[in-house]
Every structure is written in C-alpha cells, then in structure tokens.
Amino acid sequence: MRGRTKGALILFSTLLIGVLIGTLLSGWFVRDRLRPIPHSRHFVRSTERLIGPQDEEQRQAVRDVLRRHAAALRELNAKHREALKEQLDSSRAELAPLLSEEQLRRLDRRLRRFGELMGPWREGKRHKKKKPHGNE
Fold first, then answer.
1. What are the tens digits of pLDDT across the range 53-102?
2. Is 45 part of any domain?
3. HEC assignment per residue over 38-88
4. 31 in any annotated domain
5. Which of 27, 59, 87, 135 could bond 53 through an S-S bridge, CB–CB 3.0 to 4.6 Å?
6. What's the predicted TM-score (pTM) here?
7. Interatomic CA distance for residues 100 and 115, integer angstroms
8. Domain assignment of residue 107, given as a range
9. Is residue 43 part of a domain?
C-alpha cells in the first residue's frame, strides 16, 4: 500500500508540474503574440538597421520610404484595434442577458486582461493617448 501511495503521489506531482509549466508557457506565448506593434520610430529604426544601408544617400532614401509607410501602418493598427474593441464590446452586450453575475464577472475580467495585452484602447493611466512627435 505504501509503495502504491508513493507512486501515485509521484505521478500526481509530475502531472501537476507539467500542467503548471504548460500554463506558464501558454501565457507567455499569448502575451508575446499579442504585444502591441512598436511605435513608428522603432519600426523605422529597426527596419533600417535590418537593411543596413550602404551609404548616407541610400540611408536617407530608405528612411523616407519607411517613415511614409510607418504612418500608414500606425493608422491601420489603430483602425484594427478599434474594430476589435467594437466586436468584443458587441459580443459582451449580447452575452450579458444570458449570463449569471459570476459568469459576466469572469467574462469582464477576461476582456479587461485582453484589452491590457492589446495595448492602448482602454481608458486609464497606462493607456492615455500620447501627442504625436514631429520628427517621426
């Protein structure tokens, strides 16, 4: 009996450790995939570094193209985030009458955490809109 108990305890402990590691890794991957798109300055800088312009003339030409497209990407990103927010809010509004208070609380918590992962669409100290820089 003692051997069976010990074996079951080892098996259960191994399973529990595996579940915890899987949960942590899953959360890490989700956060990594949903991180906000970097500011356009970072896009320009990192892409320019990746390309490695051969001279100053090419560097300036590459920078001009990247800056022009960075503005379009920033606008596209903002529209995408707003459309995503609208869809999530719409689904929450439709689900609200169907759910108990506890279920609604869990859903709100999930939506709030998802909004935090997606970046600046929710109001709050962390998500205040910043004034655009003149030299982007």
1. 899 999 999 988 988 888 888 888 888 888 888 888 899 999 999 989 99
2. yes
3. CCHHHHHHHHHHHHCCCCHHHHHHHHHHHHHHHHHHHHHHHHHHHHHHHHH
4. no
5. 59
6. 0.45
7. 22
8. 38-119
9. yes
C-beta separation of 39 from 45 below 8 A: no
Question: Which helix (H) or strand (E) element contains residue 118?
Answer: helix 101-118
Cα→Cα distances 69→116, 121, 123, Å = 26, 22, 27
CA 106-88-118 angle, to 5 degrees, is 85
Cα separation, 15 vs 99, in Å, equals: 33
Q: Is residue 110 part of a domain?
A: yes
Domain total in the chain: 1
Residue entry with tokens 């300036």: 60
- The residue type at 59: R
